[in-house]
Specification:
Strand content: 25-35%
Shape: globular
Radius of gyration: 16 Å
Length: about 210
């Protein structure tokens, strides 16, 4: 369980690629509203565990169907997965962008529809037996994600994975969720299918 202390010092892109021997806990948000959305999310989770050096997927939230933000059309499927990784946040983000691109993501306008969206939401580092939030804000890398606290499709999955741990800008995700107005909420329903099976393996297929 993550700790409630203050954020740890910044780990910037200029740092060594490898994290500490104990590794970092990195929480990645996934979204898709084009094509076979569930298959895309499952493919992305499999790629995260298979391709990132020194990284494994250790948990996945439920999948939620959400209305799009902005002018984009078509409902999204969203989820959050937890990674244990020896990579620095900047290196993780680089891999996320590469996996997005291989799934057909084109970055044009902010609210465009997308085959796959991967966001590095929160990173935790173990210090004296307690998991503390890591802060990064340099060279285009921002952790925690600056918009995480205002997105229910991020906060609800994080509640599943971290409970009441204060990992989002010093507060629990549920605390931020309680402050969202009805008009800011996007979740339509919990999706029946899962990304993760009872044996802790990525579900394959549609």
């Amino acid at each position: 369980m993550a700790g409630r202390g203050s954020a740890q010092p910044e780990l910037g892109p200029g740092s060594a690629e490898q994290g500490s021997e104990a590794g970092l806990r990195a929480f990645v948000g996934l979204g898709s509203n084009l094509g076979d959305r569930l298959a895309t999310l499952r493919s992305a989770v499999a790629a995260l565990g298979r391709e990132l050096p020194g990284t494994r997927v250790v948990a996945a939230s439920s999948v939620y169907e959400t209305r799009p933000l902005g002018p984009s059309e078509g409902a999204f499927l969203n989820a959050v997965v937890e990674l244990r990784t020896g990579l620095r946040p900047a290196a993780v983000l680089g891999w996320l962008l590469e996996i997005e691109a291989r799934h057909g993501r084109e970055r044009r306008r902010r609210w465009d529809a997308r085959t796959l969206d991967l966001d590095l939401l929160v990173v935790l580092r173990e210090t004296a037996g307690t998991w503390e939030a890591v802060r990064v804000d340099r060279d285009g890398v921002q952790v925690p994600h600056p918009e995480a606290k205002g997105r229910d499709f991020v906060l609800v999955p994080l509640v599943e994975l971290v409970g009441d741990a204060a990992v989002v800008e010093g507060r629990a995700p549920g605390a931020w969720l309680e402050e969202l107005a009805e008009g800011e909420r996007t979740i339509l329903r919990r999706w029946g299918a899962a990304l993760w099976d009872e044996d802790g393996e990525v579900v394959q297929g549609g």
